[in-house]
Amino acid sequence: MPKLPTYSSRLQPPSAVKRPPSDNGMDEGAVSPEKKSKTAGGRATQISKPAAGRGGLKRSFSVANVSAVGAQKDHSKNTLASSKFRSSTLNLTGRPSSVSSSVLANRVPTGKSKRPGWDLKGRLQDMEALLKPREVEQKEWMKKFEEYDTRIEALETEKTHLSHDLVQTTTSYEANQEEIENLRRNLRKEQDERCSEKNNYENTIQSLTFSKSNLERQVNSLDAEIAARQEEVAGLKFTVSELSSTQAGMEARLKSTESLLVERNQQITEMMAQIEEQKRKIEELNEKLQQGEMVRRKLHNTVLELKGNIRVFCRVRPLLNEEIQNNANSDVIHRINFIDEHTLEVGKGVVNTSSMSGLKSRGNNFTEFAYDRVFQPTATQAEVFEEISQLAQSALDGYNVCIFAYGQTGSGKTFTMEGVPNDEELEGMIPRTVKHIFKNMEELESKGWAYKVEASFLEIYNETIRDLLASPKEAKNLTYEIKFQDNKKNEIYVTNLKRIPVENEGKVHTLLNMAQQQRAVAATNMNEQSSRSHSVFQLRLSGENSKTGDSCEGMLNLVDLAGSERLKESKSEGARLVETQNINRSLANLGNVIMAIGQKQSHIPYRNSKLTHLLQNSLGGNSKALMFVNISPVEACLNETQNSLRFATRVNQCHIGVASKQIKK
Ligand SMILES: Nc1ncnc2c1ncn2[C@@H]1O[C@H](COP(=O)(O)OP(=O)(O)OP(=O)(O)O)[C@@H](O)[C@H]1O
């Protein structure tokens, strides 16, 4: 495309020419004053600028009055006119401009000489000749400009249309975008809904599938059940038919049974009569049994009476380990001869063990002692109890029974009475008696006897009574005195002393353990030894016979006496001396009481000691007593042994009368 002609600042387009607003939004009036002033000063500024938006069309023009880029078509027309005019501008100095000169130089007819200065006419002709092609050229240019203008106008119009289209397109694009967005949103919503619907359907399908499989299973089991029922029905049908035939047989048998029944009824009536006869016989036998029991009791009592109401058993304990060592490692007892099961002899002579008979022969200075029974060191607890078990029976029959162990300290009294705790073989007379009593109580139950058992356990130390079944806290500030229950019954009791009901054998063991603990506490607190006190275990047995209406009340006293050392032998002093004196006094009084009873004295000195006072009812005429005299086999104890044996002999010689049964009133 040809370049647009430039405008000369000096050849401005007519001011009347109407100019459109510039492309960049600035109209002619928007030309800065600075530029206007510059233009007014006649100074022209050449600006060469690409005509943007005009299809790459470039124009070069003066900005004397027009500063806007991309002038409109009117403006273009004016500028073209100016350009035509400018092109023909002459240098007023009489010389053509450099461009025009060359052009003119080109137009001056070659071969003609240069007109002289004065030939103005000629020169004017030359110039007109030169201008003529210019005018033609100018017309062409004008035509071209007009074409350009038309084209520009068309382009402008097209542009306007395009802008309008663009706006419309943008609007519709935006509307479309919005609609698309809406559609997308709707689509997403729809997708979500469909998705949740799909999940719901899937869940429903799953549960339906599960239900279906369940139902299938049910159907299967029902099918199986139906099959089983059908089988059952078939079986039942078979059974019914069988039963029907059986029924027919049964009916036939029933008829025969009925006749048999009549026969049997007759037999039963006969048997009933026989049973009545048997019952009568049983009652007769029961009566005889009761009478037999009474006879047994009487005979039992008579046997004991024949044995004597106070009996004495002597028990010699074995040498203990330490004593064996001191006895030249021998368990041979040198100072005691066992003659038979009733007799022994004790002395300082030499025992001859080499006699032909095998029996130890009597040496010099031996004294013989005879008792109801003599137990050698080898005698077991069970063997000893065998001999006293009848006394336990007497307590159940309603007698007062007293079993006591007498002997010096360490002679085996406690071993005999209590034995070794928790060792069945070595348990002593108290636990064995209790066991025997409860066993007999059970047997007597079948004969109509029911018993109530109460236990007390006390200790007499220095003539003071202490309750071994009461804790120190319970016993605090309590005094224990021996009193008569009432004058009629003559029953002795100790004030504040605990009486604990005993339902079984086990309870008695608990009480024995409790008593042992109390003794241990007392021993620690008061620096005393158990051997320095008398301990008395009492069992009250009240029986009633629901068949015969009989009743009885027995009392069993099991006494472990304090050591019987003589004052001289004990060499005690101070508090121990007082203890020993008290013990000796009470033991001597026990002997005196027994003597007085034996001699049937009018006054029995029961009240001279707490022990005899307490045992008054069990040492009197209507009681049965047994004394163990416990003997130590140690040579060094020989004197005490002899003293004990002498005391026991005195007791053994007493006849304390005929025991009488205590009938409960
Ligand atoms: N028959 C026996 N068999 C075996 N050991 C016995 C026998 N008798 C007593 N003993 C033992 O001899 C020792 C003294 O016995 P025990 O304590 O019974 O004498 P005690 O006369 O009660 O003395 P204390 O008056 O001091 O209470 C104990 O170790 C005991 O186990």
TrEMBL record:
It comes from the Eukaryota. Keywords: ATP-binding, Coiled coil, Cytoplasm, Cytoskeleton, Microtubule, Motor protein, Nucleotide-binding. Residues 309-654 form the Kinesin motor domain. One of its GO terms (cellular component) is microtubule. Residues 138-232, 261-302 form a coiled coil. It is found in: Cytoplasm, Cytoskeleton. Residues 1-12, 89-104 have a biased composition (Polar residues). GO terms for molecular function: ATP binding; microtubule binding; microtubule motor activity. Residues 1-56, 89-116 are annotated as: Disordered. PROSITE patterns: KINESIN_MOTOR_1, KINESIN_MOTOR_2. CDD domains: KISc_C_terminal. Its main location: cytoplasm. GO terms for biological process: microtubule-based movement; mitotic spindle assembly. ATP binds at G407, Q408, T409, G410, S411, G412, K413, T414. The keyword Metal-binding does not apply. InterPro entries: Kinesin-like_fam, Kinesin_motor_CS, Kinesin_motor_dom, Kinesin_motor_dom_sf, P-loop_NTPase. This is Kinesin-like protein. It comes from Macrobrachium rosenbergii.
